[in-house]
Design brief:
With about 120 residues, this protein is of the alpha+beta class. It contains four helices and four strands, in the order βααββααβ.
Protein backbone atom coordinates (compact mmCIF):
# COMPACT_ATOMS: atom_id res chain seq x y z
CA UNK A 1 0.00 0.00 0.00
CA UNK A 2 1.43 3.35 -1.06
CA UNK A 3 1.09 6.19 1.39
CA UNK A 4 -0.14 9.41 -0.17
CA UNK A 5 1.21 12.63 1.22
CA UNK A 6 -0.98 15.67 1.64
CA UNK A 7 -0.28 19.35 2.06
CA UNK A 8 -2.50 21.77 3.98
CA UNK A 9 -2.50 25.34 2.70
CA UNK A 10 -4.38 28.51 3.51
CA UNK A 11 -6.00 29.94 0.42
CA UNK A 12 -7.13 33.48 -0.26
CA UNK A 13 -9.10 33.13 -3.46
CA UNK A 14 -12.07 30.77 -3.77
CA UNK A 15 -11.41 30.41 -7.50
CA UNK A 16 -8.92 27.61 -6.66
CA UNK A 17 -12.04 25.53 -5.97
CA UNK A 18 -13.50 25.99 -9.47
CA UNK A 19 -13.13 22.29 -10.30
CA UNK A 20 -13.83 21.02 -6.77
CA UNK A 21 -16.93 18.84 -6.45
CA UNK A 22 -18.08 17.34 -3.16
CA UNK A 23 -21.05 15.63 -4.75
CA UNK A 24 -23.40 17.45 -2.38
CA UNK A 25 -25.32 19.90 -4.54
CA UNK A 26 -25.97 22.50 -1.82
CA UNK A 27 -22.32 22.45 -0.65
CA UNK A 28 -20.98 22.73 -4.20
CA UNK A 29 -23.37 25.62 -4.88
CA UNK A 30 -22.09 27.40 -1.77
CA UNK A 31 -18.43 26.78 -2.63
CA UNK A 32 -18.76 27.98 -6.23
CA UNK A 33 -21.22 30.83 -5.79
CA UNK A 34 -21.14 32.15 -2.23
CA UNK A 35 -17.84 31.28 -0.52
CA UNK A 36 -16.09 34.45 -1.73
CA UNK A 37 -18.88 36.63 -0.36
CA UNK A 38 -18.92 34.73 2.94
CA UNK A 39 -15.17 35.28 3.38
CA UNK A 40 -15.51 39.01 2.64
CA UNK A 41 -18.45 39.50 5.00
CA UNK A 42 -16.98 37.43 7.82
CA UNK A 43 -13.43 38.75 7.70
CA UNK A 44 -12.43 36.61 10.69
CA UNK A 45 -12.95 33.51 8.55
CA UNK A 46 -10.16 31.71 6.72
CA UNK A 47 -10.27 28.83 4.32
CA UNK A 48 -7.84 26.00 3.82
CA UNK A 49 -7.40 23.24 1.29
CA UNK A 50 -5.81 19.84 1.57
CA UNK A 51 -3.95 18.86 -1.61
CA UNK A 52 -2.49 15.54 -2.66
CA UNK A 53 1.01 15.20 -4.19
CA UNK A 54 -0.39 15.97 -7.65
CA UNK A 55 -1.95 19.22 -6.46
CA UNK A 56 -5.55 17.95 -6.55
CA UNK A 57 -7.68 19.51 -3.85
CA UNK A 58 -8.89 16.63 -1.70
CA UNK A 59 -10.79 18.65 0.92
CA UNK A 60 -11.55 22.20 1.96
CA UNK A 61 -12.69 23.79 5.18
CA UNK A 62 -13.50 27.22 6.54
CA UNK A 63 -12.63 28.23 10.08
CA UNK A 64 -13.71 31.32 11.98
CA UNK A 65 -12.78 32.95 15.23
CA UNK A 66 -15.63 32.77 17.68
CA UNK A 67 -16.56 32.67 21.32
CA UNK A 68 -18.05 30.07 23.60
CA UNK A 69 -20.29 31.22 26.39
CA UNK A 70 -20.37 29.14 29.55
CA UNK A 71 -23.34 29.79 31.77
CA UNK A 72 -23.22 29.17 35.53
CA UNK A 73 -24.38 25.54 35.17
CA UNK A 74 -21.54 24.77 32.73
CA UNK A 75 -19.02 26.46 34.99
CA UNK A 76 -20.32 24.50 37.98
CA UNK A 77 -19.99 21.22 36.05
CA UNK A 78 -16.44 22.07 35.05
CA UNK A 79 -15.57 23.13 38.58
CA UNK A 80 -16.76 19.75 39.92
CA UNK A 81 -14.51 17.88 37.46
CA UNK A 82 -11.57 20.27 37.74
CA UNK A 83 -11.67 22.03 41.13
CA UNK A 84 -8.81 24.42 40.34
CA UNK A 85 -9.95 25.26 36.79
CA UNK A 86 -10.55 28.95 37.42
CA UNK A 87 -6.97 29.38 38.65
CA UNK A 88 -5.37 28.01 35.48
CA UNK A 89 -3.52 30.85 33.70
CA UNK A 90 -5.09 30.03 30.33
CA UNK A 91 -8.62 30.15 31.80
CA UNK A 92 -8.39 32.73 34.59
CA UNK A 93 -8.94 35.80 32.38
CA UNK A 94 -12.10 34.35 30.83
CA UNK A 95 -13.72 32.58 33.76
CA UNK A 96 -15.66 35.47 35.31
CA UNK A 97 -17.24 36.70 32.08
CA UNK A 98 -17.81 33.18 30.79
CA UNK A 99 -16.72 34.06 27.24
CA UNK A 100 -13.92 31.91 25.90
CA UNK A 101 -12.20 32.31 22.52
CA UNK A 102 -12.84 29.49 20.09
CA UNK A 103 -12.18 28.38 16.57
CA UNK A 104 -15.21 27.10 14.71
CA UNK A 105 -15.26 24.94 11.60
CA UNK A 106 -18.01 26.51 9.52
CA UNK A 107 -17.76 24.40 6.39
CA UNK A 108 -15.99 21.16 5.59
CA UNK A 109 -16.16 19.34 2.26
CA UNK A 110 -14.30 16.36 0.82
CA UNK A 111 -13.86 15.91 -2.93
CA UNK A 112 -16.34 13.30 -4.17
CA UNK A 113 -13.52 11.05 -5.44
CA UNK A 114 -11.95 10.88 -1.97
CA UNK A 115 -15.04 10.24 0.13
CA UNK A 116 -15.17 6.95 2.07
CA UNK A 117 -11.38 6.70 1.85
CA UNK A 118 -8.76 7.15 4.52
CA UNK A 119 -7.12 10.56 4.08
Amino acid sequence: MTKTRYHLAREYNASVLADFKSGVESMDEFIHNRLSVFLRVYNTSRFYVLKDVDGLIVAMFVVSCGQLFLDEDCKEDLHMKFPDIEERPDIKDYWEGGLFPSIEINYLAVHKDFQNRHI
